[in-house]
């Protein structure tokens, strides 16, 4: 008899909003500099989360990480909409991104990458972290790990492919 996979747990949107809504709003506000647009972003995040709730897997990412990945995509969509239709933004709004918004965006990106790195194999993770994130030369890392440089390059190549797949599974768009 075949075992059934457990039924997906329905997303409790009210609980998710209570836990993460204010933080998502602050993130969107810092990114867009517009309170109304930030509210629209939060609304869209929870609408998309509700619609895609069957694809959320708590074993792959925390609810917070998943919601912030959705928020990042919605903020990008909103920014593109403003870029194409600038008349939709109030004339008094400052289009420049505040410096703290860029820092917050980098922080969310770092969380998402960290979560994706947890999902790939240890050898691939080590190769990517040492060469790409720490910027160390391949020869130095290979010598430290006791492997040929070609093996390290192969691990980096396949590790990046696995990382892209993990980001895809998390719902992160490039």
Automatic annotation (TrEMBL):
Belongs to the sigma-70 factor family. ECF subfamily. Pfam families: Sigma70_r2, Sigma70_r4. Keywords: DNA-binding, Sigma factor, Transcription, Transcription regulation. One of its GO terms (biological process) is DNA-templated transcription initiation. PROSITE patterns: SIGMA70_ECF (PS01063). InterPro entries: RNA_pol_sigma-70-like (IPR039425), RNA_pol_sigma-70_dom (IPR014284), RNA_pol_sigma70_ECF_CS (IPR000838), RNA_pol_sigma70_r2 (IPR007627), RNA_pol_sigma70_r4 (IPR007630), RNA_pol_sigma_r2 (IPR013325), RNA_pol_sigma_r3/r4-like (IPR013324), WH-like_DNA-bd_sf (IPR036388). This is RNA polymerase sigma factor. Gene3D superfamilies: 1.10.1740.10, Winged helix-like DNA-binding domain superfamily/Winged helix DNA-binding domain. Residues 17-81, 116-164 form the RNA polymerase sigma-70 region domain. GO terms for molecular function: DNA binding; sigma factor activity. Signal peptide: none annotated.
